[in-house]
Every structure is written in structure tokens, then in C-alpha cells.
Amino acid sequence: MNTEQQPGTNAIKEVFVFFAITLGLVYFVFWGPMVFFRVPAGSFVSDVRGPAWSLVFLFLGGFTPSLVALGLTWRSEGRAGLKQMWQRTIHFRIGWRWYMTCVAFVVFASACQILFIYLLGGSFDFSLFLTQLPSALFLIVIGPLSEELGWRGYAQTRLQTRWNPLVTGVVVGTVWALWHLPLFLWPGTSQHELKIPFLGFFCAMTSLSVLFAWLHNHTNGMIWTAVFFHWIYTYAAQVVDSGVTRAGLYNWLEYVPYILAALFISAVWIREMRSKAPDTGNT
């Protein structure tokens, strides 16, 4: 099954329609109005307590990437397209080395973040990785499954039919970051309450998207790869966030490991793509 080549010649148009609908829904329907009318969301990281129905808007907005992707796939490809997307989502046999690579990225980033905590004079309780393990099942839905059918399963796959996969990863990452922007302006969300700088977050999302693109291309475009990677890095981020007393400097440093990893992978990937490019020179 060739998951990288989608039928038709309107792949770019399809993705920009996906971007427009997904951003439009969170900016003008689910999250943006909550920011505009100053309705706080129920917070998991502070004492902010918004109305219970605000959480409905929070979660519905969080599912827009995957739901929009499913809707557009059904509209253009019917049940066959949905079936193929489902098969790519439950294709767990991506190879043990790619599972280990996903884990290695997260371990590297988490170790660096914990090192930053100690360098800034803090401490960290490593038992948090075990005590918070029961929440991991919930996290596979909030984030991985609610987003990755859209970002990697729909957008990355289609854009790559026309554009360089590395450039595509940056494009998807840019939109991915902008999709989160209302959360930084909405009291009660983690992004707002923890005073996370959007510029640093933007750099992190584009960097992570490069890593997603690299993994996506080396596992035959299987959505499960993105779901798994998103799952474990979200869990690790949750654990580290719960164990750190945030300071202004840490809020910037926490994204550095993923940026460094993306720069390294980009260099390796560019060299790899150049070595595979056909030689058009004269002999």
C-alpha cells in the first residue's frame, strides 16, 4: 500500500482547505470566542475555575485536526479513504528501532530538561514518572489521536506529493503552532497559566514537526508512528512540568533539546536525500 502518494492533482489545495477549516474552527468557534469574551477554562495547573461547559469547548477544539481530516477524507475518497486512514493508524508493526528512536528523542529531551532544572537550583522527583503512569491511557486520546490524523495523516502526506518532506514538516509545524495560539491567551489553560512564551513554543512545534516528518517518512507514512511519538512526548512533558518550579529562564530552555534534535536530524536527512538524488551531471 503506497501511503505517500495520494490520488489527484489537488493535494496542495486540499491541505490548505484543511488548514483553513481547522484554524477557523478553533479561532472563531471553539477557542477564540472564549478568549474574546474572557470565559476562563477549568485549569489543571492553577486555581482558575471556569464554567464546566468551557471544558467542552476546550476538548472539541482539541479534536478539530483529526475530525476535519476525517471529514475531508470521507468527502473526497469515501469509505475507502477512511479505511486506509484507519489501517495506517492501527499499523503497529513499524519496527522496533523506530519505537526505540521515538523513545530516545523523548529521553534525550526529558534528561536535558531535568538537567536544566538542577542547573537552575531546583530538584526533581523521578518517582513522578511512575506515579503518573495511569494518566498515560487518557493522554493517547488527548493530543495523539485528536490531532495526528490531521497533521501527519492528512497534511504531511499530501503536501509531500509536491514539496520536499523537510520543508513540508516546517510548514505543518508552523500551522500546528498557530493552531495552539488561542490557548496562550485563554485563562485557565496550561499555556496561559504557566506563562509559556509563544515564540519558544513556536520554535518547539516546528522542530518537533521536523522530527515527526522524519519518522513519518522512515515508517512508510504510518499514522501510528506519529500517535506513538506524540503520546510519549506528551506524557514525559506532563511529568516534567508537574515536577518543576518554573522560572522565566526555564520556560525558554525547556524547548532547546527538541530544537537541537531537529537541527541534527535535518542535517542527517538533507545529506541522506542528496545521496539518493539522481545524478544529472554529464559523465
Helix and strand pattern:
HHHHHHHHHHHHHH
Number of strands: 0
Q: Give me the Rg, rounded.
A: 19 Å
Helix content: over 70%
The biggest sheet amounts to:
none
β-sheet strand percentage: under 5%
Which structural category fits the helices and strands? mainly alpha
Question: What is the domain tally?
Answer: 1
Tell the overall outline.
globular
Query: N-to-C terminal Cα separation, in Å?
Result: 37 Å
Counting DSSP H or I runs of 4 or more residues, the number of helices is 14
Q: What is the average of the pLDDT values?
A: 92
Low-confidence stretches: 1-8
Q: Which characteristics define this entry?
A:
single chain; 283 residues; mainly alpha; 14 helices; globular; disordered N terminus
Summarize this structure briefly:
The protein is mainly alpha-helical. It contains 14 helices and no strands.
Question: How would you explain this protein's 3D organization?
Answer:
It contains 14 helices and no strands. The chain has 283 residues and is an all-alpha fold. The protein has one domain (11-273). Helix 8 runs antiparallel to helix 9. It is globular, with a radius of gyration of 19 Å.
Secondary structure elements and pairings:
Layout: H1 11-30, H2 32-36, H3 52-62, H4 64-89, H5 96-119, H6 128-131, H7 136-139, H8 141-159, H9 165-185, H10 190-193, H11 198-218, H12 223-242, H13 248-253, H14 256-276
